[in-house]
Design goal:
Blueprint lengths: L20 H19 L6 H11 L7 E4 L8 E6 L5 H19 L14 E7 L15 H5 L3 H7 L17
Parallel strand pairs: 2-3
Antiparallel strand pairs: 1-2
Helix pairs in contact: 1-2, 1-3
């Protein structure tokens, strides 16, 4: 279940060596890697899902904030909303997260070894990280993209050719 990739080839990868930035990037790398590995396990969606994850790169993964106090010591991580990202892309990423858990249970209700992904839930708080440049135009929220000035759209360099974001029906169940 291991997709091979070089960290230097990951779009948006930056190696931080000071402060807590290393851990921040390490968490995003783990999320990116897990989604990419999961995409490689399902031949029907492998090409499309791999392209999406690789196009988004490390900076396209949703960061989160933890809240330990309100949950009796059990950490809850709130996903920071990316206002620029389309709902269809978010649906693909959540589907990959669900498929990862399915692989972990192996369909037999017995978990494989290893630590589990931490509990992540949606939150209204928005990410402060900027949009990723040079994505297909339909990777961006239609409302968000439409509200950008001509100059900002030029800086974004969105690819005009859209990519199919339809999730195959057998994965919607």
């Amino acid at each position: 279940m291991h997709a091979k990739f070089n960290i230097d080839d990951v779009k948006g990868s930056t190696r931080y060596v000071i402060g807590n930035k290393f851990f921040y990037t390490a968490g995003l790398l783990q999320l990116y890697s897990r989604r990419l590995q999961t995409a490689h396990q399902y031949t029907e969606i492998k090409t499309q899902a791999t392209h999406m994850v690789q196009s988004l790169g490390l900076d396209g993964m949703s960061s989160d904030e933890s809240d330990h106090e309100d949950h009796k010591g059990e950490a809850t991580y709130y996903i920071l909303h990316k206002d620029w990202r389309s709902c269809q892309i978010t649906a693909w990423l959540r589907m990959l997260d669900s498929l990862h858990l399915r692989l972990r249970y192996r369909g037999e209700w017995r978990a494989t070894a290893g630590s589990w992904p931490h509990f992540r839930t949606t939150h209204l708080k928005e990410s402060t990280r900027p949009a990723i440049n040079e994505l297909p135009v339909n990777f961006y929220s239609r409302d968000w993209y439409g509200a950008r000035s001509t100059f900002m759209k030029g800086e974004l360099k969105a690819k005009k050719q859209s990519v199919s974001l339809a999730i195959p029906s057998e994965y919607l169940k």
